[in-house]
Each structure stands twice: as structure tokens, then as C-alpha cells.
Design a protein that fits this description.
The complex is a heterodimer of chains A (64) and B (184). Helices cover 59% and strands 0% of the residues of chain A. Chain A has 64 residues and is mainly α. With 184 residues, chain B is mainly α. The chains are: A mainly alpha (64), B mainly alpha (184).
Chain lengths: 64, 184
């Protein structure tokens, strides 16, 4: 990421929207994890959920 | 006619889709809380399954992310309490971060931020993660944590300060204008 400058001054902490390197680093860390491909384990949980939804649809339909 | 039914297949399908969309954020929040990838993914999966099991107590149209984050967070603290080896306090790492930081020539390295984050008290870390990383509002963070907004704000301020000090050393003379973010 390109270097950004922020003005130094007494109100630096009070006026928040100014560039904050720590906040920027937190966002980058967050995005790095978010961009990882989903591990298999997570997809398996979704498969289980899908199976349950499918089963409940079948039940609902037969009841109606 | 399915409206209002607690567990219709349609409602379940919507819940499932929202859950899927939220997995990256859940993983990220868990990673920030736990540090380690494996432990974090276990926590995120646990939260998913608990969320699914408790789906009937979620009110559609309300803040799903906040609801899931709350489940994940509660589970994190429950696990920590049960298993004290999970606490991430490691004085040696803190020492290393502090010693190494001045040599970084004002560059923040993400790995250092990640390490430093794990040194913070969990109550400060979670606020930094929710607001600083995930971009949640003070209100949402307060709802998730179950505390007043003023508490969220003061924890955020303390957390930021502590994090900056862990990275740069305890100086009120942090050369903010010269700090750059090193992406790797």
C-alpha cells in the first residue's frame, strides 16, 4: 500500500477520520483472512445444513 | 402462509445463505480473537453450528452479523474459561515485538500488528476487531459485547493506544506522519 501522510497536530486523535496506520493494518489483516478460500470443513457444515433443509422441505411437502 | 413460521424451509434457506455470506467475516473475527488459524476456524465452525441450531431465536430482518458475532464471541470466552492454555499471553513475544519495533524504520509490518493484537486484553482486542477491522458501528459493537457505547469508545481508545505502543514502543512521539504500511 502506498505511503500516506497525515498532518501532525494536537487534534490528531480527536479528529478521527484522518489516516491511522494501526487501523489500516487491522483492516488489511481482516481482508487477508476474508480473502482466503473457504476451508473444506466449512463447506461440509453447509452441506449438512443443505441436507437438513432438503429433508424439511420433503416433510413439509408431504404434510401439505 | 410460511410467514412467521419459526422454521420453514424458506426461512432456513435464507438463514443458510446469510450464514454462507458471513463465513469470511466469522473466520476473520475468530482469527483476531484467537490468533492461531486452526483454533480460530474451530471457533468459527462451532459458532456456525450453534447459530444454525439457534436459528429460530433470530428475528429475520434484524442484524444477522451482530447476532452471529455475539454467538462466536460468547463461545470464545466460554472456551477460554474452560481451557486456560488458550489464553494468548506470551511475555516473550511482547518483549520481542517491543525490541524489534524500533528497527522497522517506522514501517508497520502486518505480522507485528497481528502479534501485538494478541498481547492486548481480550476486551480491547475485540473492540479493535469489531470496529477497526470489521467496520462495525459503536452501537453494533456495544450490542455484541453487551456493554454501554461509552465503554466501547474508551476500550477502543485504550486498545489503539496500547497497540500503537506495542508496535512502536511506548513513545508519545510516534512519528505517525512517517509510518507506512508494509503489506508483507
Amino acid at each position: 500500500m502506498a505511503e500516506k501522510n497525515r498532518p501532525k497536530g494536537p487534534n490528531m486523535q480527536a479528529a478521527e477520520p484522518a489516516f491511522d496506520p494501526v487501523a489500516a493494518a487491522l483492516k488489511q489483516l481482516h481482508q487477508a483472512v476474508e480473502n482466503e478460500p473457504l476451508p473444506e470443513d466449512f463447506l461440509r457444515i453447509l452441506d449438512d445444513i443443505d441436507a437438513k433443509i432438503k429433508a424439511s422441505k420433503t416433510t413439509t411437502n408431504s404434510v401439505q | 402462509m410460511s410467514e412467521g413460521l419459526p422454521s420453514s424451509a424458506e426461512a432456513d434457506q435464507i438463514f443458510r445463505d446469510e450464514l454462507l455470506a458471513l463465513i469470511p467475516s466469522l473466520r476473520s473475527f475468530a482469527r483476531g480473537l484467537c490468533g492461531g488459524r486452526e483454533m480460530a476456524d474451530d471457533l468459527a465452525q462451532d459458532a456456525m453450528m450453534r447459530g444454525w441450531a439457534a436459528r429460530n431465536s433470530f428475528t429475520p430482518g434484524t442484524n444477522f452479523r451482530a447476532w452471529m458475532f455475539m454467538i462466536l464471541r460468547n463461545q470464545f470466552y466460554t472456551t477460554i474459561r474452560k481451557n486456560s492454555r488458550m489464553t494468548s499471553w506470551d511475555p516473550e513475544v511482547a518483549e520481542r515485538v517491543l525490541v524489534e519495533a524500533p528497527a522497522q524504520q517506522h514501517a508497520i509490518h502486518l505480522a507485528d500488528v497481528s502479534k501485538a493484537l494478541q498481547k492486548l486484553p481480550a476486551e480491547q482486542r475485540e473492540v479493535l476487531l469489531l470496529i477497526g477491522a470489521n467496520g462495525l458501528s459503536y452501537e453494533e459493537a456495544a450490542e455484541i459485547i453487551g456493554c454501554a457505547m461509552g465503554t466501547v469508545k474508551s476500550r477502543l481508545a485504550r486498545g489503539r493506544k496500547a497497540l500503537a505502543e506495542l508496535i512502536d514502543g511506548p513513545a508519545d512521539e510516534v512519528a505517525q506522519d512517517r509510518i507506512s504500511i508494509a503489506a508483507e
